[in-house]
Amino acid sequence: MNLALLLDRAGRSFADRPAIALGERIVCDYRSLAGRVAVLAANLRGRLGLSPGDRVALVMKNCPDYVELMFACWQAGLTAVPVNAKLAAAEFQYILDHSGARVCFVTSDLACMVGALTGPRAVIEVGGAKWRRLGEGDGMAVAPCDPDDVAWLFYTSGTTGRPKGAMLTHRNLLAMNWGYFADVDAIAPGDAILHAAPMSHGSGIYILPHVAAGAAQVIPESGGFEPDEMFRLFTAHTGVAMFAAPTMVHRLVAAAETADPDLAGLKTIIYGGGPMYVEDCKRAIHMLGNRLAQIYGQGESPMTITSLAKHRFPRSGDPRFEERLASVGMPFGIVDVRVVDGGGAPLPAGETGEILVRGDSVMRGYWDDAQATAETLRGGWLHTGDIGAFDGDGYLTLKDRSKDVIISGGTNIYPREVEEVLLEHPGVREVSVVGRPDPEWGESVLAFIVAAPGREVAPGELDALCLARIARFKRPKEYRFLDALPKNNYGKVLKTELRALSVAK
Question: Which H helix or E strand runs over 322?
C-alpha cells in the first residue's frame, strides 16, 4: 500500500475539514490538499522527468508546502529525503550526494546556501516561478508501489561520524501509523497536530496518523518553537497534539510558570528523542496536567519501540510513581522488544542489557551501506545500542547508550542514574555525566553541571546528595560547571564533546 492513499482517502472522507493551517489561519481543506498533491505528483514525474524510486530532498524549514511535497513524492512513487534545515553547508552537501537526490526543494532562507552546493541536481525554491509551474495542469492517480519500497530516507544525526540513511519503507511508516492509534493517542476529525519540532524528523512522521484521521496540520508562523506562540495556538485550535523534544518541554513549562496560559485546546504533548528526567516530568505534570505521553524510538524504528500513553502515565500517590516516570513505558503492540546479554540471550526482568527490536516498523536497512546494515540488523533484530531493563510488569527503563556506560574498576555505572540524582538539587538546571580515563580505575565519573539562573552550587552539596541516594563508587569524582551543555541540532547533548573536554588540559 502506498502511503499517499491516506491522503487520497482523506480528500474524499474529510473533504471540507481543515487540512493545513499556518498559525491561526486555515490554508486549505482536505479536498484541495489532495487535488494539489495529485498535480504536484504529476509534474514531478512529467515536467521534472523523475522515475519511481528517485530521491527528492526537502531542505526546508517547517511550512505548509512540506506536507504537500511529502505526499506528492509518495503519490508519484518517489522517495522523500527530508533534511534538517539547521545543518551546515557541508552536512547538506554530504546528504544530497550520498542519497543521490535528483531534485532538492528549498525554502527561501536556504536557497542561496543549497544553490551554491555542487552536484547534478535541480534546486527549486518553494514559492518561486519553477515551483508555481509545478502546481499547473492535471493530476495523477496514486502510483502503485511495493510495501517495501523506500518512502522516507532518514539520515541519522551523525554525532559520532558520518550520518547513515535509514531506509524507511511504506510498510515501516504504515506500521508506525497504526501503532500511534493503538499505543500513543486517539485522534478525532477536527483535532490538530502542531508542528513546532522539525518536520524533517518525528513531527513530520506524525503527519501520517493525523491525515488518516482527518485532523489539521498546524504550522507556526515562526516555523519553529516559541512558547508564547504555542500558547496562542492552543487557544486557536482544539484537540491539539504536539511532538516535542525534552528541551522544548522544559521551555514550555518554564514559560507556563509565568504566563498562566489557557491550555483548554491542548490535548497531548508527546515527548521523545532524549531523556526526560523524573524531576523534569514532575514539574511538567504540575504545570501542564495529565497531557504528557512518551515514546521511545530510533530513526531505524521511527517513533516506535515503547510508549507511555496518557492512560498509563503514573499519578501522584502511586507507590511506583517515580519508577514509572523514569521508564519509557511498554512495547508497542506492533513490535517485539527484548533485552539481551552480550551473547544475545534474553535476560529476565530486572537484568540490564542491550535493547533489541523487530517488527514491521524496523527499517529495511541503511542506504548504500551493506556492512552497517548487516551489523545493525544481525539475526533479524535491530540492535539499538541502548541499554535498559524490563521490570516485572513489562515496563522498560533506559539506562544509557552502550557507548556511554562508564566502566570503573570493572563495574558498570550508568550515567543517567547519576544524572537523575543530581537534578534533584534545586540549583542544578542541566547535567550530563561522562566517563574519563583513570589510570587506576580505568574510568572515573565526571559531571558537567549547568546551574539554575542566579544559583551557586557547591560541589560538597552535590557529593552529599549522591552519597545519600546512590552507591559511593557511582559518585562523580569531579564537577565542572558550564554555561550550557553542547547539543546538536536536535537538542541532544553531545557527550563526544564532553568527553573531549574531560581530558582537555
Answer: helix 321-326
* Spatial distance between the Cα atoms of 263 and 24, rounded to a whole number of angstroms: 16
Q: What are the angstrom distances between the C-alpha of 320 and each of 270, 278, 292, 324, 491?
A: 22, 12, 17, 6, 29
Q: What is the DSSP letter of 337?
A: E
Q: How do residues 260-302 score in pLDDT, each as one tens digit?
A: 999 999 999 999 977 788 888 999 999 999 999 999 999 999 9
Taken in order 294, 300, 302, 306, is the CA torsion positive or negative? negative
Helix axes 246-259, 227-236, angle to 10 degrees: 80
- CATH fold, domain 405-503, is GMP Synthetase; Chain A, domain 3 (3.30.300)
Are 337 and 306 a contacting pair, CB within 8 Å? yes
Q: Are 392 and 350 in contact (CB under 8 A)?
A: yes
Number of H helices, E strands in the chain: 17, 25
Quote the CA–CA distance of 277 and 275 in Å, as a whole number. 6
- CA 415 from centre of chain: 22
Cell numbers 535528483 correspond to what residue?
A: 102
Residue type for position 452: A
Residue ranges per domain, the chain? 4-390, 405-503
The CATH number given to 4-390 is: 3.40.50.12780
Hunting for cell 589510570 — which residue is that?
Answer: 439
Backbone angles phi, psi at 434, to 5 degrees: -135, 165
For 444-470, the pLDDT digits (tens) are 999 999 999 999 999 999 999 999 888
Three-state SS at 104: strand
